[in-house]
Amino acid sequence: MLSVGSKERVALSLHSLRMSAEKFVKGKTIELRKKHIGPSCKIFFSHDPIKIVQAKGQYMYDEKGGSYLDCINNVAHVGHCHPDVVKAGAQQMELLNTNSRFLHDNLVLYAQRLQATLPDKLSVCYFVNSGSEANDLALRLAWQYTGHKDIITLENAYHGHVSSLIDISPYKFHHLSDTEQNQSVHVVQAKHSGVYGQIPVQKILHVRQAGGIFIADEVQVGFGRVGTHFWAFQLQGEDFVPDIVTMGKPIGNGHPMSCVVTTKEVAQSFTSSGMEYFNTFGGNPVSCAIGMAVLDVIEKEDLQGNALRVGRYLTGLLEEQKDKHPLVGDIRLKEQYILLSADGPHRNVLKFKPPMCFTKEDADLLVGKLDHILTELEEALGMKLHGALSVENESNKRKLPTDENGRQNPGGLAHGGGSSLGFAKQAKRISS
Ligand SMILES: Cc1ncc(COP(=O)(O)O)c(C=O)c1O
């Protein structure tokens, strides 16, 4: 007979939990997905998809117990299935969940908590359910306030999947001809403009002088991910205040919720249109309980500080790789149990957006595997490791990348220099 200790018992029960989480064998899941799910809903690693049945912290587990280091899921901001977040959601779900047309303390408490992270002027919240919904509402607020529909957006930006946002997301519409594109949308280039870029503050001031307003899309980069600040727009300077901020992804650690925060003036102008705003799920007591738990964990575990420390450490390690390898290209980390995605107009930028509990050991593991793969690849291609380094690369050794204003990338766990920003352009003044 085999005697099983408590550690083994925990491992065994986790294993059986995983087994019970699988309802079909993988082949059947793939078959049913092909049959019933829209083919444009793409899957990660489509040539050999992974079936994830459980996740914890910065790790994801497949149906066979294979454990992957997660560098993809910035949504699981404070770590997959964080017990405090799960508990907060479950406890509130046992008590009540309903829409925000009833008075409930969670709604106002959470609005107060979010407001405390923002400049005083940004004091009015609209709770919604996804990043796209938040940005669509932000556009409506901006259109109503400015009286104009023109938008300036960044090259390669992505702001969401609904019709109004496809129009302002060059990432999605760049293949369309000029006549197919919305003529009110004006695309500008910015250094580091990718899906996540930043517009220099001087340009924003010009827009404001013309009566336009500024929307900071914090859907990817908010909630401490940039490390030095809680919000990426704060990288523009301590005094800089957007007119509207949109939040999503990390806000609920995987629970679908989002928020638009604006000034009293913008909110008042929206109300003056006379149209009531109602959102069935936005700001329900369960979402608000979860949102508050996420804020608590960020604070309690100093995850913003961790993003800064580990982000800088990882940036340093990657800089060394850049110097060492002429080729940072075809990287297949999935086989090494690392989940990572590519981005950018040519899909040649590695996008690191792990949960914020990512550690220096995880960074070492990630970069060790990256180094190994690149070395093998270069050897196979017969590339010389050092001869191919460009002069420019040499001169950039160990410097952190800088943005348009010459500021250094803060080096948090964000995958870009800051938030993607869009704003309504034309002025009330111009029109009157
Ligand atoms: C910057 C940005 N804004 C908005 C969105 C849309 O968010 P959602 O997918 O939750 O609708 C995304 C999604 O990737 C995003 O990256």
TrEMBL record:
CDD domains per UniProt: OAT_like
Primary enzyme class: lyase
Residue ranges, annotated region (Disordered): 392-432
UniProt-listed InterPro entries: Aminotrans_3, Aminotrans_3_PPA_site, PyrdxlP-dep_Trfase, PyrdxlP-dep_Trfase_major, PyrdxlP-dep_Trfase_small
Pfam families linked: Aminotran_3
Biased segments, Basic and acidic residues type: 394-406
UniProt keyword list: Lyase, Mitochondrion, Pyridoxal phosphate
Matches recorded under Gene3D superfamilies: Aspartate Aminotransferase, domain 1 (3.90.1150.10), Type I PLP-dependent aspartate aminotransferase-like (Major domain) (3.40.640.10)
Subunit structure: Homotetramer.
Primary localization class, coarse: mitochondrion
Keyword Heme assigned: no
Cofactor dependency: pyridoxal 5'-phosphate
GO cellular component: mitochondrion
Native source organism of the sequence: Liparis tanakae (Tanaka's snailfish)
Protein's name according to its UniProt entry: Ethanolamine-phosphate phospho-lyase
GO MF term (any one): lyase activity
